[in-house]
Amino acid sequence: MRCMMCGQHATFDHSVFQGTAPTTVRLCDGCTDKVDAPGHLQKIKTAADHDAKSAAVAEFLKAVGT
Question: Strand pairing partners for 23?
Answer without folding.
Answer: 16
